[in-house]
Structures are given as C-alpha cells and as structure tokens.
Design goal:
By secondary structure, this protein is α+β, with helices and mostly antiparallel strands. The protein has 14 helices and ten strands. Belongs to the acyl-CoA dehydrogenase family.
Length: 398
C-alpha cells in the first residue's frame, strides 16, 4: 500500500448560504462523489484528455441549463458560481470548459433568435453539444479588438467567408460549434465596433485546429484555430452585425464571476488536500500540521479563500438583481479568487514538500491549474486597472 493509496484530502466544509444554493451544492457534490475519483482525475490530467463522459453527466444532472429556459432568461450567476466552485475543487479542467459553455449559453439566451436557440442552445442545454469561443488571436489578447485580423467578407449570395487565426481557444478540437468573432467593417469609428459574432459548426470546411502544449488545465485542449475561406450563412450571425464585440463585453461580468468561481474551487481543493496532509503526515513524531509556521500559512490562505467567497457572493447577488448593478464587484471577486488560488496552492506545495511534486497526488495539479486565473479571462494587472478606474475613481491608467 503506497502513500497515495492511503491519503485522502480533508472533507469539504459546510458552506453557509441560502437554502436554494445549498441544495444545488449538495446535488453537485453527490454527482461528483458518484462519478469522480482521485484516480479518474489523475488519469485524464496525465493523458491530457477531456473527460467528455463527465460533461455528459453534468448536463444530465441539469447543471448546464440550471434554472434557464430555452426561450427565456439564462441561468442565474449565483447558481453558476456554485457549480463552478465544486468543479474547480475537483475536475478543474471540466470546470474551465464549463465557463466557456456558460458563456455560450448566456450569449445565445441574450442574442440568439428562436431558430438559433433551437439549433444551438437546446443541444448545449442537454449536453449533446459543446461549444468553443473564438475571440483571442496571436497578436491580440486584452487589446484583441484593435488587433483583430480575422475577417468576414460578405459574398454575393449573402453568406460570409471567414479567414484568419484564433489562438488559445479551449476545447476547439472536439467542439460541435464555435462562436467566432470576425471583423466585418473596416470603417467603424471605434476599434470595438465593426466586429460580428458567427455561429460556426466545427465540421464546416476550411476549419483546422492544432493543440497548444500547456503546463496546466491539461484535461482541456487549448487550440490554434485556422479559418480558410470558411463559408457561413447570414442566418448564423449571432446578434447584430458590427456589434458583436460590444455584445461580448456585456457578458464579461459573468465570465469574470465564473472565472472567480473556478479559481475559488481550486483554492478550496488545494486547502482540503493540504489540511488532510497536515493532519496525517508526521515528522519528529507528530503531525506536520502541529507546527506553528505551517499553521499560520494555512490560516492566512484560508482567510483569502473566505474573503474571495464573500466577494464572489456579493458580486453574483448583484448581477442576479438585474442590469446596471455595480460590475466592479465581479472584478474584485476575480482578483481575490486569483490571489487565493495562487497563494493556497503555493502554501500547499510547501506543506507537502517533496510529495507536492509527486504527480500521483493532486497538489501539483492545483498548483499548475491555478496559474490560469492570473491572466484569464483578463490579466490581474488589467483587472487592477479596471478597479482603479471604476471602483476608486482614479484616472484611467492605459
């Protein structure tokens, strides 16, 4: 019997929250307890493969659709945050993929017409389809609107021809369709205008994908997507022509919240692993968790986790209360959750020492995966710029 066979993380703590979300959390935990084991998580991370069967189980449990109706409002932000935290604490790569799925769900609820919701949203709700979101490009991340080189040219028959390259597109290898942003006008007054969203089936001729080798989130392929004269009918325009980037900006509040939720889950999973280890691993005849230095580090990390949780709850409640709420809460929550994740995984590696390096135990995976949320969906530095301007009222810094 090896040490990893004997070791189990500390059980998740009870979280004080409204009954509706406590019940949802219990549902998610029960589903994950039934289908997910440490061995399964390690298998897909080592194989660098997506756990598609788990995605199907998530959808079968109603966790993609949640409380959204096909032709009505989408799922609430508080409900999404519960699901994503639980996924972040275990099958993190699947949690990251669900951030993308929820973004597609939100865009289709907000801007899809009846036919598009039937064709693209219904199978997404049911887990019969997965989508990827094609925004970033090789020359543009935060400033992608200004740097966007992907073009959509209108043809004589009214359809569009898309050509260009997208980069860092999660899950594009096996997605059923992609939401692609492309420039449709060269004469827009602002860089963020003149860009349109297109619903593009992955099987459309002219699409080629290549996997990017990454250090973290290895269970979800990050891809280069090459578009070579990809023909898309005008019926597949999502939202308004030339207003696609502005429409995406309207969803960024939700994406920040969802990124914060997964980062919070990573922090919590790492904390549970570290506490389990600190209680069981002995040195000098007593548990390593009895040493004051380690206790203080774990306590400091725990404070960051609970602070991020409260900010996330505040932000999600504000977002669910309706448009026009203070969206800086989501930026504050994302920044706090990113800090909690990187701090806790670093502390966890120190608590486990050499065993933290061991790929048969999960701490090294949490450590790698946490780094995603220092730059996604927006870098921590740009998030601070946003908070400085919008929350503190300081002059714009960029």
């Amino acid at each position: 019997m090896t040490i990893q066979d004997n070791f189990r993380p500390a059980p998740p703590a009870e979280i004080s929250e409204p009954a509706e979300f406590a019940a949802l959390r219990s549902r998610v935990r029960a589903m994950l307890a039934e289908h997910v084991t440490p061995e399964r998580l390690n298998k897909f991370d080592e194989a660098e493969e997506y756990d598609v069967e788990l995605f199907h189980e998530i959808a079968a449990a109603g966790l993609v659709k949640l409380d959204g109706e096909l032709h009505g409002p989408g799922p609430g932000h508080q409900a999404q945050a519960v699901v994503l935290e639980e996924l972040g604490a275990g099958p993190t790569s699947v949690g990251v993929s669900m951030v993308v799925q929820y973004m597609g769900v939100q865009l289709l609820h907000s801007y899809g017409n009846h036919q598009q919701q039937e064709e693209f949203l219904a199978p997404l709700h049911a887990g019969k389809a997965k989508m990827s979101f094609g925004l970033s490009e090789p020359d543009g991340g935060t400033d992608v609107a200004r740097a966007m080189k992907t073009r959509a040219v209108r043809r004589e028959d009214g359809s569009y021809s898309l050509s260009g390259q997208k980069k860092w597109i999660g899950g594009a290898m096996d997605a059923d369709y992609l939401i692609i942003l492309a420039r449709t006008s060269e004469t827009a007054r602002s860089a963020i205008d003149g860009i349109t969203m297109f619903l593009v089936p992955r099987s459309t001729p002219g699409i080629r994908t290549e996997v990017i080798d990454t250090v973290g989130i290895r269970g979800l392929a990050q891809c280069d997507v090459y578009l070579d004269d990809v023909r898309v009918p005008a019926a597949n325009i999502l939202g308004e022509i030339d207003k696609g980037f502005r429409q995406v900006l309207d969803t960024l509040n939700g994406e920040r919240l969802n990124g914060a939720a997964v980062a919070l889950g990573i922090a919590r999973g790492a904390m549970e692993t570290a506490i389990g280890w600190a209680r069981e691993r002995e040195a000098f005849g007593r548990p390593v968790g009895s040493f004051q230095g380690l206790q203080h580090s774990l306590v400091d990390a725990s404070v960051k986790i609970e602070s991020a949780r409260l900010l996330l709850r505040q932000a999600a409640e504000a977002s669910d209360s309706g448009p026009g709420t203070n969206e800086t809460w989501s930026a504050l929550a994302k920044l706090a959750a990113s800090d909690a994740a990187t701090t806790t995984t670093d502390v966890g590696m120190r608590v486990m020492a050499g065993w933290g390096f061991f790929r048969g135990l999960p701490m090294q995976r949490y450590f790698r995966d946490a780094r995603l949320y220092t730059f996604a969906p927006l870098t921590d530095e740009m998030t601070r710029n946003y908070i400085g301007e919008k929350h503190l009222g300081l002059p714009r810094s960029f």
